[in-house]
Amino acid sequence: MHQYKSVEYIDVSKIEDHPDIPNIRSEVNKADVKELILSIKKKGVQNPLTVFKGVEKYFLISGWRRREAVREIVKEDPKSKLKSVPILVKEYDKDTFVKDALYDNAIENIQRKDVNPYDQAMRIKMLLDMGIGKQEICSQIGKSSTWLTETLNVLNADPEVIERLKKGDITISDAKRLAKLPQETQSTIAKGLSAAKTSGDKKTTQKIQKGMENVTRSRSHVAPAKQDIKYNKNLLMEIIIAMKEKKETKTEQYYVLSGCLKTLQWCLGETGDVNFVKIAEKYGIKIGKDGSRLKEKPKTAKPKTAKPAKKKATKKKTTKKKATKKKSGKK
Question: What total of structural domains would you count in the chain?
């Protein structure tokens, strides 16, 4: 755990970068730094830099641009009063100070617009490389596991995609969609999208973005990582143990959660393989290549052969001659 101390003022030259906590930015926007220099010359450093104290030095956690701006000012005028900067000192546990400082740096910069999404992804990767689980990182930085997975996927995208993202030619949403496309198409589409955005061609931009969305829509659901599955499995085990202790094993919820636990164990390979095909055959279910049930073709009734119609006997119309009775006349 770490704690804050009150704001202090120290010489900017005493604040250095810790070798295990590098600056989050891979590229520096010099125009932004120049703009910040003008602001500091007028108003001073408004927000304190966040640091932690070493044996003889202070190491930076956040406030890199402010420190660099003040350094430039001091180069121009070594006697400038601005060389004394406000700092907020944090105290960390000796065993976990690197991890805690990286967390603080990531949280500080994760929502900042001037920090490139690629650099944010690299900072998260640093935490993963330290052996910290995805669930813990998500809870610390306030992001979902889906966001984390998709952001990390950008690091595996084509170099052209990463370069365009660093320069700000495409957004992180564009980069995430591009990273889902086949590797051989990513570079071409990234160039086309970047050119359309730079030229202000909104129609082409929208067409490319819509095309990527349509292609990746069916793949938008990100499968949970193995570590996430393991986390949920362990949590479910604890819940089921607690339910057994309270003798709630005959409830519907218990049966549902037990089934979920078995499924997660199967996904992790902790249970014997289940032959679903044989079970399907037992119930007479025919399975297609994608695992869905094959629809049986309806039996078509054989067309009935028409029997030759019987000839109806036609009765000859006989015309009866009406006998004309001769009227006998009286004389």
Answer: 2
Whole domain around residue 61: which residue ranges?
1-92
DSSP symbol at 142: T
Beta strands 84-91; 49-53: pairing state: parallel
Residue 203 to residue 209: CA distance in whole angstroms: 10
Short-list 172, 183, 181, CA closest to 143: 172
Considering the domain boundaries, does residue 330 fall inside one? Answer: no
Strands of 15-16's sheet, edge to edge? 3-11, 84-91, 49-53, 58-62, 15-16
* Two tokens, residue 231: 């986390």
Distance, CA of 215 to CA of 210 (rounded, Å): 9
pLDDT tens-digit map of 245-292: 888 888 888 888 888 888 877 777 777 666 777 787 888 888 776 677
Does pTM top 0.85 for this prediction? no
Q: Which amino acid is at 298?
A: P
